[in-house]
Each structure stands twice: as C-alpha cells, then as structure tokens.
Request: fold
Amino acid sequence: MTDIVVECRLGNIADQPDVDVIVNAANARLLPGSGVAGAIHAAAGEGLAEECRALAPIRPGQAVITAGHRLPNAHVIHCLGPVYGVDEPSRPLLADCYRNALRLADRHGLASIAFPAISTGVFGYPIREAAEVAVATIADSLSLLQHIFKIRLVLFSPEDYDVFRKAIATGLPPAVRGS
Ligand code: AR6
Reply:
C-alpha cells in the first residue's frame, strides 16, 4: 500500500486536470445522458461515445475503462450505480462501483482518481447514505492498492461537499485524510 490521500473537492468532475482518471456516473448503455455523464461526454467529444459503444451494456456495480479522448485525463472509468429503490440491494451495488473502479484504476497502474457522488442525482440515492458507502468502501480498499496515491471525491453542491467532508472525517484515519 502506498501513502494514500483521500480528499474532497467542490467542483465539476469534467474539470479535474491533475488526476489520471475520472469516474463517470454512467447509464447502462454508456450513452452521454445528463449530469455527470453529460458533462464528461461533452468535454471528451464524440470519440468517447464511439469507444463506449463496444463496451455496453454494463450491469449495476460494474466498472469499465476507456481513454479520456479530449479530456485532460488519460482515462475515464464508467460505473453504473444502482437506481435507489429499484436495483437492490443498493448498498453492495454502490460499494461495488467504488471497489471495482479503484481496482481497475490500480490494475492499469494509475496514480490518481476522481469520483463523483455516484447514484445521488437522477438515480436518487440519499446523499448521506451514499457518502457513508463511498467512504467505507474506499477505507476497505486502501490496503489492496499498489499504485493509487490520490483519491478525490468531487461534489457539485456545497451541501453535498459538506456531507462527504464529514463522512471522510468520521470514516477514515487522520493519516489518509487530505485537505
Ligand atoms: N460534476 C460533479 N458532480 C456532478 C456533475 C458534475 N459535472 N453534474 C452532476 N453532478 P448524476 P446518477 C452530481 O445524475 O445519479 C445520467 O443521465 C449530481 O448533483 O449525474 O448516478 C446518466 O446517463 C449528483 O450528486 O448520476 C444516468 O442515466 C451526482 O453528481 C444517470 O444520470 C450524480 O448525479 C445516472 O444517475
């Protein structure tokens, strides 16, 4: 295990130029869509949707990797989060997204990764529960990672940022917490 930092940022997932890979809160068919997926595909250009076509469909909890195309990041990892109240049990499916994305990035030798709050928009997952699952899954995954040294959680609203910041403060040891 490297010395890993887990940090929280308020901002746009498609504007994280200093990380190797950003995570997309995708739909099963890996089409552009709205929210995170819309922002990532708009910034990446049509080449991303073309590359995605061969990898779709994906299942809830699954993660697949593509190039970043016109994004400043080398790669995008696409995760399908659970639709809250529909894809059950939702907690392990959401945890699978974070675990599988971290393992996939690490297997590709990537050093830094940024996640949005998967499933908490169109898919309706309550933000507090989602933050707890994200942080607990990251905490459980840390000892397995060989290459990743920076894990960033990117939140779109000050309220969501606050929720994730508190989840990090209670769910991770001080040595791992970034600013
Ligand atoms: N950067 C960071 N976070 C964002 C951004 C952004 N640019 N835009 C929205 N969020 P969502 P889901 C926040 O709906 O719930 C799409 O149509 C947002 O406030 O993007 O997993 C796909 O095609 C929320 O907290 O993802 C799928 O059909 C969180 O990111 C479906 O929505 C996730 O919101 C996926 O739904």
